[in-house]
Structure of GDSL esterase/lipase At2g04570-like:
Amino acid sequence: MSSPAVTFAGKIPAIIVFGDSTVDAGNNNYIPTVARSNFEPYGRDFVGGKPTGRFCNGKIATDFMSEALGLKPIIPAYLDPSYNISDFATGVTFASAATGYDNATSDVLSVLPLWKQLEYYKEYQTKLKAYQGKDRATETIENSLYLISIGTNDFLENYFAFPGRSSQYSVSLYQDFLAGIAKDFVKKLHGLGARKISLGGLPPMGCMPLERATNIGTGGECVGRYNDIAVQFNSKLEKMVEKLSKELPGSNLVFSNPYEPFMRIIKNPSSFGFEVVGAACCASGMFEMGYGCQRNNPFTCTNADKYVFWDSFHPTQKTNHIMANALMNSTFPHFL
């Protein structure tokens, strides 16, 4: 357990999560979309070895954060009917795999747009007030930690995949458009009572196995342009957060940047105990995710802990654990 988390234990009543597949714990199982992972081999290293809809062989970063704060070992998905408000009172995720800031991104695979996640959060507040009583619920809402992890799909699944947005916006203007949506979302959250808010940046998305595999003629190098775009976008988000934190009364906003810690793993995998960084564990390790990661694929690796990536887009549980610790160390002290 990392030290900031220890200092924190008992001070944070809940972790509330918004975002995409990096933090979705299975909401997409309950909506009509192909962006799912509630089948084997997903979840094979999860408690009980069962697939939950997390795009991972085990836990995602937010699960580790919840555990480190002494809340509970996993953060459940809001749409999962096997949980109720007594579970959600200490942590819940509204995230939806394949979504983005841009509504056009969530439309691609018919997943929950960010505005819909906020609607579900309002519904959650109503349930929480009924469950805890108004005063205690208000206290929970104010002291909870709000984590937002989203944005990669806006570029890789939308902007660079379809002609729509790229014919309307240059990359730089699209970044500004997304940052504007992020700002608006944080303001709305604050208006609903949230105070401790962490806005996550983009990882080195050019180093995902899918991007390396399609980077023809480079021998599977990371796509430098995509990484540069992530760095630029992160810098815009960071400036926006800095400015906004001065405008919103009583707010404690932090920009949480996964880029550097993730890059450290990618540049020096062996120092973290990894053997494979360019290909994923699942199937051929180059293209497959979701339904492409079939249960009986003979190429799927036996020990995911040797791999940085689980499928062509998503990190393994081990990588998620390392990233959770890195982000807790850099971000959490700001909330103390």
User: Anything to note?
Assistant: The CA atoms of residues 82 and 264 lie 38 Å apart. The chain has a mean pLDDT of 95. The radius of gyration is 19 Å. The first helix runs from residue 3 to 8.
